[in-house]
Design a protein that fits this description.
Tetracycline Repressor, domain 2, elongated, DNA-binding, mainly alpha, Arc Repressor Mutant, subunit A, homotetramer, 2 domains
Chain lengths: 212, 212, 212, 212
DNA sequence: AATGAATGAGACTTCATTCAT
DNA sequence: CATGAATGAAGTCTCATTCAT
């Protein structure tokens, strides 16, 4: 299993691809990618197995689709209900709280995609190309902008490092609890979701306002 | 696939088990558990397939062994070179720095175990029993002790919540970078390991000294 | 191992199934079902192992096929050379003699199927559904008709019980000798097949004309 | 798997053998011989696997034991509670009724042995030697004696054939219902056990008193 | 001689991928 | 081009039998 997607020249092809992507999305909510069979995807998309192989060279070629889905959902969320209106007057802490709340929302809703994306970013880094990097690059850009906006509150000396860490933390802190709840490191947490979100916002805040 | 280990009546049995555990440890450095076959383990342990099944009911019965290994290594590390000498006079920040450094060391060395443990704690929570919870319970205990020691510096109102979050952060912050380096969320990080460790120590510190 | 057959969408599928059924029929003449492997069936049908599993969910799914074969052969036999022309004028004894002769013929020819069917009707009654019961129900129906035809000769008080017993005896008496010849209870028999058939016809006759 | 038992020279050996025989008896009540493993027998007899192989060359060597058990039980039954007191004055029909009643009792109680014995008499006739034949030979002897006793009632011309058939019928008629109840040919029977026993006695009677 | 651990052939089953129709 | 049947490698697991201790 390796390599990539096949180009879709015709309109029908595009539809076929879309249906497969939708099928993958649906199945991913139920079980890990490794447990999903091609036959299952074909059936969910109401296609034949052969038709699947016409669009995708092999099973691995679906892995980038996971990232595609992730990306698409994230974009939609960020420009929709997940949009964070930053009020400079309200201060950094408030902005972080809003941002963490939005991140939490997204994770709760699209966690299954994030989970799969994370897993395969690690398992098969060769298959995802630059999507992942690009995604995080954008995030870092936003982080830099935000930190600049609250330049007076932020005490970190190295602005570049700060925006890197900010991105890292944002993509790391809420994941464990949001995705695995009772399992994983989150078992120690008995506090409510609200307090948890507040706590990670404070964590970010604490990092930024602590001089090194 | 499910359930447990079989009792060993003879001394030889014990050895066989040990060899299988060692074989698992070795293979786990190379690839995920799901990709390791029983035949492979047997060969690595210089045994026949049947001998494996005399010690382990089925493949799943190896999953608890991952945690066993993790636990054992962690204990050894913590009472050996990983031991953190807290100097009350040096302050909280210094203590956190040391702790993060130790955690980092452990992860760099035994990351493959932590990785597998994390994965299966999520994938097959039914198979690990209370080991996981126990492990984190102990960690939280230590956290509580530490925070008490630096009670004057810590500004969090709820001490219980603080020790929970401290444990969560400690088990969450360094993982991503230590385990997946170039892949995952850590791609954004261009800073050195040293600075990274310092940064997460600061993150913890920031959280604790920020009043809510 | 359990459950059923898979639907065949294409004509080729049907052929594949037929070939597997034929392969089973062939192998069953040589050895018990338990000793026949899937690989063996595949080879006999000139197919791959995977192709077998596309038609049959698992090995157990072949068990109903045994009954299917039995049923089919029986129907064919009964409406062909096995047809028994009852001559009311010739009397009950003659009719029974003909019927026993036909049953004997069938058993000699298709004994291997009857043997397997009997075995699995007992070993895995869950897998055969109502086929078995239905088959015997029909037999009983025929029995009732026959007994009615010779109502004056039959001395049994309870006609219902008589037709039940008749069916039971018909399906029990010849089996042992026909199927296992030298082995089983038939070792005591040194008489010829002809005399044996006559004897069981007489046994049935004796039962029916003996008043209770 | 083939061949035979090993001689038991010592007292301890004899005990070991007895325990294995008892273990086989116990397990046979639960499941078919083919499904019983050597390890299971060893455990049930509180022996090691090696010890089993010291007494029995291989698994097949247990098959004759099935017949041994059958034989032993039958002897015990026939000279105990199963003893049939024939009253010449009461007539043939009464004697047959008693005999069928006894046979039924035995089958109900030791059916699992009869079942296994029948199966392996057919599956592996090579392994049972003459035990089987001998057993039936004795039965036939008894039959001959009985028929002679009621020589005036019996109308069969060939006494030899009659005793053969009598033995065959006795070992054939009740089996199906006694051993397989709901499954097999007995599904057609809705009558009670008592009536069934009476019916097969009548069947035997009918055969004997019907002139050929 | 006894124990039970080890062997290893072989059975069932799955599924990514290919290919005849 | 589409369909879904066929392929076959690979993996898990069982258990009669052997053999080291």
């Amino acid at each position: 299993m390796s390599q990539g997607t096949k180009p879709a020249r015709q309109e029908r092809s595009r539809q076929t691809r879309d249906r497969l992507v939708a099928a993958l999305d649906t199945r991913l909510r139920e079980k890990p990618f490794a447990d999903i069979t091609i036959a299952e995807l074909a059936q969910a998309a109401d296609l034949s197995v052969g038709a699947v192989y016409r669009r995708f060279e092999n099973k691995d070629a679906f892995i980038p689709v996971i990232f595609e889905l992730y990306s698409t959902r994230l974009d939609a969320f960020m420009s929709g209900e997940g949009r964070v209106e930053v009020d400079p007057a309200a201060g950094l802490r408030s902005a972080l709280h809003k941002a963490c709340g939005a991140a939490w929302q997204f994770l709760v809703r699209h966690g299954y995609l994030v989970r799969a994306a994370h897993l395969y970013a690690r398992l098969r880094p060769d298959l995802i190309g630059d999507d992942w990097e690009e995604l995080l690059g954008q995030a870092r850009q936003s982080a830099a902008t935000l930190l600049e906006l609250f330049g007076d509150e932020v005490k970190r000396r190295d602005a570049d490092e700060a925006s890197q860490m900010f991105t890292y933390l944002m993509n790391t802190l809420p994941i464990e609890r949001a995705l695995y709840r009772e399992e994983g490191a989150a078992v120690v947490l008995t506090i409510s979701d609200e307090r948890f979100v507040a706590a990670i916002a404070d964590t970010l805040y604490g990092y930024l306002v602590t001089a090194d």
